[in-house]
Amino acid sequence: MRYPEATRLDLVEDLHGHRVADPYRWLEDDADPRTRAWSEAQDALTGELLRALPMRPEFTARLEALVRSGAVGVPVWRSGRAFSTRRDPGQEHAVLRVREADGAVRVLVDPMALDPEGTTTLDAWSPSWDGDRLAYQLSTGGDEESRLYVLDVTTGETVDGPIDRCRYSPVAWLPGGEELFYVRRLAPDRVPDGEEQFHRRVWRHRVGTPADDDALVHGEGSDPTTYFGVHTSRDGRWLVVSGSAGTAPRDDVWIADLAAASPGTRPPLRELQVGVDAQTAAWVARDGRLWLMSDRDAPRWRLAVADPADPATWAPEAWQDVVPELPDAVLSDVALVDAPDGSLQVLAVHAVDATDRLSVWAGPEAAHPGRLADVEGLGAGSISGVSSPPEGGGTAWVGYTDYATPPSVLRWDAGSPTALESWEQAAVAGAVPELTVVETHATSPDGTPVHLFVLSQAGAPDTPRPTVLYGYGGFNVSVTPAYSAQALSWVAAGGVWAVANLRGGSEHGEEWHRAGMRERKQNVFDDFAAAAEHLAAEGWTTHEQLGIFGGSNGGLLVGATVTQRPELAAAAVCSAPLLDMVRYELFGLGRTWNDEYGTAEDPTELGWLLGYSPYHAVREGTAYPAILFTTFESDTRVHPLHGRKLAAALQHATSSEAPIVLRRETSVGHGARAVSRTVGLAADQLAFLAKHTGLHTRVALR
After folding, report:
1. Among candidates 289, 294, 292, which has minimal Cα distance to 308?
2. How many helices (H) and strands (E) in the chain?
3. Pairing state of beta strands 330-338 and 320-323?
4. DSSP state of 38
5. Of 433, 494, 499, 594, which sits with the fewest C-beta atoms within 10 Å of its C-beta?
6. Reduced to 3 states, what is the DSSP secondary structure of residue 198?
């Protein structure tokens, strides 16, 4: 192919004794006329190539149906009202609704009603304890710069907002709905240049008053990248604040007794956990106990209780276990429920080999603690959350999805503790192929078993077929079974879709996460390569029929794989990727990830980064596979410069005729997007993979 001309700079820097070349530094600058011209030329080249892909119309049509399947969120209960999201077939975005005690349902926030162009997204929401007010956050154009509003639930009228600089802000209400705690960044003129995305603080806000008059609660002197969490007890007595530097797998936790603070004064926060290499989620529940879900001395997590009023019970050795750490399962979520006799019980979610299980445990007052029952009826799927009314009751709601089931909600009742029933089912639009899901294990070079889910159409021939291998491997993210229109569309067309549970995720607890971060990051790439080799060895596919796929941190995974093992796959899709690991901290939210990857400012850690940085691993004269980079111009997490720089480097270096192209989108960011934008992107990605893995079978649309 004739690629757009890209000037190569003779730029080599000495960084801690390393000679580091950066020939495409100029592509970091969005405003540089050379960047604009190069990007527009890439648009023309990629557009022509994508439009000519033979299976693009078929994938578009199938995705139009499957992507538009519905989705239902887990309800949040407040004083008899249930708040939840729902997207029906044909809707671009989910709407936020309230279900009244009499069963009547009303829409409270509809992003499309606010913005018919579809570029506004609902980022977060939180109802007050009394259910009469709702805090919600919106962003536009993919920038994820959340603006906070408050509405009156009964009238639907906005009573406060917008309050800006609320990205990633939790909200914790006080009883009565007049005040809340939230997180907001300092104004840009109060922080150093280049740090406008950082410097968060916890504030106390009275609804209807200017945000600039809010009372500062916590945050001065913290690391600029700190993210804060806030939680209040239902009676308004207790405030819990947590903080973690960036995405580090550790947090500090403080507790304040608001009843002991004088009106109008700043509540004194006492240390529960500070400077400890562990994660602890803490809250005071309706029983007055301090509940603690933690990986402290328990890498697969445990649930315990303490006394919020007695600091002597806050030490881990004094905690009373309710759900102890299990040797073969990872605790991920809990809900408090009442047994038929009125005693307190816990509904717990555990993951075993990336499949979620549900069980019932005795509460802290039980004479015989431990597991009471396993809940039946769940397949190889994922539980997105468990919810119960904060005032108590014998019912809980369970969010569930699997590879063939869109996100739906099940109902659990203490009267039948081993059973679940459907509560609200998401609509399915389009024909979902009958799936065969096989679980298997690859072996990484160091002997570590790597779990895979392998999806194919029931009754498909038992011969090597075009296969897509997906992975992520980072940030403690567990890749569990979930409805995927892309996977279903690929399988319906006759292909195989595989998902690898790599180190760096949370599938086996915090030790599994740490085995794939920092100096051990290469383990993730080794696991992925082992998964690819396993699929070929077991006859699912061949290397000539294999495509690899990943986004964000998974884009780094794909970038590292194609530069380390270019012969491993015939095609790759690298979406919203992180690829220049020497300079990643200088852009977007990169600085918040240096605990996951390491920092180039440290000589030793720079060595780790250079050991796998895809941009710096490109070698001229190498036959690279077909690669489609997809980037988003409004991405404020991972700057599109990463895709630009590696695309230019590979286009210059490759000796193969396989195309290496860059697809970019405007007015969309790293996260949520309208359904129609999802269809267009996914169709291009699948059609590209099909073209270069040999998937040509046309299956009649049903």
Report:
1. 289
2. 11, 39
3. unpaired
4. H
5. 494
6. coil
Q: Which residues sit opposite 238 in a β-bridge?
A: 257
Contact 24, 649 (CB under 8 A): yes
Least confident of 23-37, 78-92, 144-158, 660-674: 660-674
- The first and second tokens of residue 465, run together, are 């077929």
Active-site option among 93, 218, 670, 692: 670
Cα(166)–Cα(180) distance, integer angstroms: 14
Q: What is the mean pLDDT of the segment spanning 628-649?
A: 94
CA distance 50 to 420: 45
182-187: long-range pairs with CB below 8 Å, 24+: 182/135, 182/148, 182/230, 183/227, 183/228, 183/230, 184/148, 184/211, 184/214
- Its CATH architecture, for the domain 12-65+430-693, is 3-Layer(aba) Sandwich (3.40)
Active-site residue, 670 included: yes
What order do you get walking across the sheet with 420-424 strand by strand?
A: 381-387, 395-402, 405-413, 420-424
Contact 237, 284 (CB under 8 A): yes
Q: ∠ CA(435), CA(438), CA(441), 5° rounding?
A: 155
CA 453 – CA 381 distance, rounded (Å): 11
d(CA 373, CA 206): 44
Identify the bridge partners of residue 630 per DSSP, sorted by sequence position. Answer: 575, 663
Domain ranges of the chain: 12-65+430-693, 71-232
Query: Cα-flanking dihedrals φ and ψ of residue 133, to 5°?
Result: -135, 155
SS3 content of the chain, % helix, strand, coil (to 5): 20, 35, 45
Instruction: At 243, list the tokens.
Output: 């903080």
d(CA 83, CA 554): 33
| CATH number for the domain running over 71-232 | 2.130.10.120
Q: Is 459 in a helix, a strand, or coil?
A: coil
The amino acid that residue 330 corresponds to is V
pLDDT > 70? residue 699: no
Note the pLDDT of residue 672: 66
Q: Between helices 33-51 and 675-693, what is the axis angle to 10°?
A: 70
Q: Tell me how long the chain is.
A: 702
Do 631 and 28 meet the contact criterion of CB atoms below 8 Å apart? Answer: no
pTM flag (> 0.90):
yes
Distance from first CA to last CA of the chain, Å, rounded? 37
Residue whose C-alpha is closest to residue 233's, from 137, 147, 356, 129: 129
| Residue 548, beta-bridge partner list | 469, 572
If you ran DSSP here, which 8-state letter would residue 382 be given? E
Among the listed residues 301, 309, 303, the one whose alpha carbon sits nearest the alpha carbon of residue 327: 301
Q: Which two tokens stand for residue 588?
A: 């977007």
- Rounded Cα distance between 199 and 288, Å, is 33
Burial of 274 (C-beta count, 10 Å sphere; 0-12/13-18/19+): exposed
Exactly one of 126, 242, 359, 552 is catalytic; name it.
552
Mean pLDDT of 267-294: 97
